[in-house]
């Protein structure tokens, strides 16, 4: 059992240099994705495209992620981590360069999709390497560092993007990323070593097709709902097709001896529970990242840069807390952290549902920061506890499943809460107009005030629904138990491959 001996040696002295290279690549990829959001209106003006068209820069990125991430379990088992990472970084770098020079909007969309084809593999690969490199008793601290990438980059993005867009061209968002991407490739060529064991798995192309249609259809349908409306054939049609394809995909995977994505991991109760809590929490967290800037910019009429700046302390807190939370998890387990973090999240989300037209900027900053502090205590400990319940051979499937569900639940949750907000906004605006007209008031002079008040009502209502969703996660957390991970038993194929 040479692999067991080498894994024991690696656990005694984890390969921090290798992990650092993977961290840089993943951080650059995730940061670049969030940099673009605030720049969309500027890009829309430059290329003279509609809002529904410019959204394809984010929707297309999510679609490729939805297609690639489920297949990441196959790639991680089939190929060495060095080959996967280099391929992913080269694709991401190529997409970044194309975005810088893109003369047309169509080519910019292609560039974003090429970027996504590379970045989609980075987070599952990084998490799988860390699960392999660290012993069970140190996984919490290790995955706490993983949280630095997962949570900090998306939160820093809006602030940095707001400043760049106000002072430079939107292409600068890609230009600042390109040198770091190239540097990461150079480091990987000379310094990256292979850590994860491989096996000779076969890719079932029908499974890949069903997965692509299933997850891609759901992501596209829910992402388009806020713009096109739930009654559009393009929305409910793609959701229906995606759902049917996904059901067939799941049934097929359960019947296969070597599935592309192994749904049998849900036989482990704590992994299933961790997935459920993560889905609910992702909906609440990502919707908050959308609703808060909407309130700040549309109701309080504050600039995009200051809207992004408001979210920065929350990013710093999450970055600082991720390693601390990991160490607390190793010492005390997930339950106390989940109870505390989710209680904070429920309370702060409720307060966000009570905003006023003149709510103070710094009060809102404090509330948002405390909310992110609460969520930082939950996501990684819950996910780590769930992954600890799986045998090591199932780690690629577990990481692929977690990343896929976060993408899908984030998109679905954001679409649902934006729709809820929009419906409440329209209803509120109509009611206000009727009341003013009944009182004999000229509503044309009150249009701006009606819009602000209606937006406030819509945001508050959406945050109240988000409070109930977060409360659902708190209830689920009552059933969390700390798991004792199964011992690692390498397969004969894995040992032979490792010997090579």
From TrEMBL:
One of its GO terms (cellular component) is plasma membrane. Gene3D superfamilies: MFS general substrate transporter like domains, Multidrug resistance protein D. Keywords: Cell membrane, Membrane, Transmembrane, Transmembrane helix, Transport. GO terms for molecular function: transmembrane transporter activity. The keyword Transmembrane helix applies. The keyword Transmembrane applies. It is found in: Cell membrane. SUPFAM superfamilies: MFS general substrate transporter (SSF103473). InterPro entries: EmrB-like, MFS, MFS_dom, MFS_trans_sf. Residues 18-485 form the Major facilitator superfamily (MFS) profile domain. Pfam families: MFS_1. The chain crosses the membrane at residues 16-44, 56-76, 88-110, 143-164, 176-193, 205-223, 229-251, 271-296, 302-324, 336-355, 361-383, 462-480. It is a multi-pass membrane protein. Belongs to the major facilitator superfamily. EmrB family. PANTHER family: MAJOR FACILITATOR SUPERFAMILY MULTIDRUG TRANSPORTER MFSC. This is Drug resistance transporter, EmrB/QacA subfamily. It comes from Sporosarcina newyorkensis. The lineage of its organism: Bacteria, Bacillati, Bacillota, Bacilli, Bacillales.
